[in-house]
Design a protein that fits this description.
The protein is α+β, with helices and mostly antiparallel strands. The protein has two helices and eight strands. The N terminus is likely disordered.
Length: 155
C-alpha cells in the first residue's frame, strides 16, 4: 500500500474544506451565472496486476467535457460542469456546477501511453502502472555504534 500513501495528499482535503467554507459564505445566492470550483470524489485502488485505478465521480457529465492529461509524471483530470438556467431562478440549489481539476503524482517514468481512461455512467476510471519495487519506500535499519575499545590499554 506504499503507492496509495505516495499519491494521497492530505492537504487537498484542507483546501477543499477551506474552499467550501469560504465560497459558501461569501458567494451571493442570486449570482447563478458565476462558476464555482467543484471537487469530484476519488477512490484509489491497487489491483493485483500491479496497476493503480483512480475512480472519479462525475455525475451528469459527458466524457467530451472531461480532460485527462499526463505531464511531468503528473496526471491531471479537469473539466467543467455547466448549469442550464433557462427554466427560471433557483429556489433551492444542491447540485454542484463549475470547474474542477484533480492532480495525482504518477510513479516516476510513467509514459502517457501507459495511462488508460474510460468513463461510464458518470464514473471516470483512470489506470496506470504501479511503482516498480525499486521506487517503493524502503526502511533503513539504524545500526548500533561499534563497540568501544578500552582506552589506555597498552599493547
Amino acid at each position: 500500500m506504499a503507492l496509495t500513501q505516495f499519491l494521497y495528499d492530505p492537504f487537498t482535503e484542507f483546501d477543499r474544506l477551506f474552499d467550501d467554507a469560504f465560497t459558501s459564505r461569501f458567494r451571493p445566492d442570486s449570482d447563478e451565472s458565476r462558476p464555482t470550483i467543484i471537487r469530484p470524489k476519488m477512490d484509489l485502488v491497487e489491483t493485483k496486476d500491479n496497476r493503480v485505478v483512480a475512480r472519479f465521480e462525475l455525475p451528469g457529465m459527458d466524457q467530451e467535457k472531461v480532460s485527462v492529461e499526463v505531464r511531468n509524471d503528473r496526471l491531471t483530470i479537469s473539466g467543467e460542469k455547466k448549469t442550464e438556467t433557462d427554466e427560471g431562478r433557483f429556489v433551492v440549489r444542491e447540485h454542484s456546477y463549475g470547474r474542477f481539476a484533480r492532480t495525482l503524482q504518477l510513479p516516476e517514468g510513467t509514459k502517457p501511453e501507459q495511462v488508460q481512461a474510460h468513463m461510464e455512467k458518470g464514473v471516470l476510471e483512470v489506470s496506470f502502472p504501479k511503482a516498480p519495487p525499486e521506487q517503493e519506500t524502503k526502511t533503513i535499519p539504524i545500526e548500533a555504534p561499534p563497540p568501544n575499545k578500552e582506552k589506555g590499554s597498552k599493547k
